[in-house]
């Protein structure tokens, strides 16, 4: 191991970081469109057990988080 060159992971790490930025941007957008930008109450938001598409979208984004 003493005479071996180090692994070149630069391209892999650049791709990984770019994927994380894209995923974080998408997740922020999903949380926003699932509630925060649509009248979400920060004080007391009741639990929505319905099959409402907005509630499903928020649950889906929360699962990915």
Concise structural overview:
The chain has helices at residues 10-36, 53-64.
Report on this model:
The relative contact order is 0.13. With 65 residues, the protein is an all-alpha fold. The protein has a domain at 26-65. It has two helices and no strands. It is found in: Membrane.
Name some characteristics of this structure.
65 residues; mainly alpha; 2 helices; EC 2.3.1.199; fatty acid biosynthesis; transmembrane; transmembrane helix; Elongation of very long chain fatty acids protein
Instruction: Give the number of DSSP strands.
Output: 0
Share of residues in helices: 55-70%
Radius of gyration: 19 Å
Quote the distance from N terminus to C terminus. Answer: 39 Å
**Large-scale geometry:** rod-shaped
- Describe the main β-sheet briefly: none
Our estimate of the beta-strand percent is under 5%
Runs in which pLDDT lies below 50 for 5 or more consecutive residues are none
Which class do the helix and strand fractions yield? mainly alpha
Secondary-structure element series: HH
User: What is the average per-residue confidence, as pLDDT, rounded to a whole number?
Assistant: 88
Count of runs of 4 or more consecutive helical residues: 2
Membrane topology: Multi-pass membrane protein
Catalytic activity: a very-long-chain acyl-CoA + malonyl-CoA + H(+) = a very-long-chain 3-oxoacyl-CoA + CO2 + CoA
Protein name: Elongation of very long chain fatty acids protein
InterPro entries: ELO_fam (IPR002076)
């Amino acid at each position: 191991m003493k005479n071996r060159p180090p692994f070149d992971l630069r391209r892999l790490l650049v791709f990984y970081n770019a994927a994380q930025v894209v995923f974080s941007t998408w997740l922020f957008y999903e949380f926003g469109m699932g509630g925060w930008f649509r009248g979400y109450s920060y004080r007391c938001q009741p639990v929505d057990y319905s099959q409402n598409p907005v509630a499903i979208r928020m649950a889906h984004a929360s699962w990915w988080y």
